[in-house]
Amino acid sequence: MVFAALGVFMVAITRCPVSLAARAIRTVSVSRSSPTTMTSGSSRSDAFSAAPNERVLVPTSRWLSLLDELRGLGTFYVALTGGEPLAHPEFLTIARGVRERAFALRILTNGALVTEPLAGEIARLLPMAVELSLHGASAETHDRATATPGSFAAMLRGLDRLLQHGVTVVLKTPVTRLNEDELDGMRRIADGRGVPLRLDAMLTPRDDGDTGPLAYRATPAGLQRMYRALAEQGSLPREERVKGGANCGLGRTTLAIDPEGNVFPCMQWRRAPLGNVRETPLGVVWSGSEERERAAAVARAANDRLAEAGPALAAFPYCPALAQQLTGDPLQPDAGHVEQAEAAAQVRLASA
Ligand code: SF4
Question: Which of 9, 62, 119, 289 has the fewest CB neighbours in a 10 Å radius?
Fold first, then answer.
């Protein structure tokens, strides 16, 4: 059963424009076991080319029946994302459906819609974590990154409400040249509230393929600073690649579904939908997809390619979907990736 290994289910339940991230610099966090990717806005897929009011969205009843299908397929956690998932009119119904079926729940939000009552409702869901993006230590920097005045204050309000209700929160920062000088300040914001801060310098193009956000990549000095900070907290990224393994869960243990029901092997791999769950049972989409098998083969090939690419690249997390977007070849790291891997390797050496 292919699905016995299916572990991660990312659901973008809305593309609502309330999403601050829709215009924000985006980051993709890469790890061998738990890929977490945020997406928002429009997609390059033809399936999304219709105007928003022409799109046919997955109804809540289908989200709930999908959860039932996932239970039978061995899934163990579900992440709700967007756009802004809290903007979905039936967010709580879907989130409760996740927990009633005993999945671990993660919610990826910009925090702006977290009212006092909603914070209480989220606390009752006992989510594994609510993840919020912190783009700077000041309103000026954060709001510039999100292109939304007031977003910094709104995010902090939401964060504090969640914390007052005892919700487990994680702050995530895409490190850029806009905020690389504010790492200490962002650390103080996180430490002052007792929440973890995850730093990641990997930026992704917009969903329409626009590579504009990559112009904000951290400088070489900023990368060094970030990896030193990660080394100090014992969380410098490190992969242990063995030939014959797999780079990530792509096509194997991850699955993403967008608001229209298109299924992808992960949130970042958007070459072509595997199918659509508005029309087809999820198990049929997954097991009958040659695109998924191609994606899984890429995950294995990427591991082997990286294992032989020298110590810096071999030890650094890699995203084949991002490489596909930037170089046209999922096995070919782009220059920015190489720069980050080498910066991390230098810091690793220096702190050994
Ligand atoms: S391609 Fe792999 S590393 Fe990249 S987002 Fe998908 S699962 Fe994660």
Answer: 62
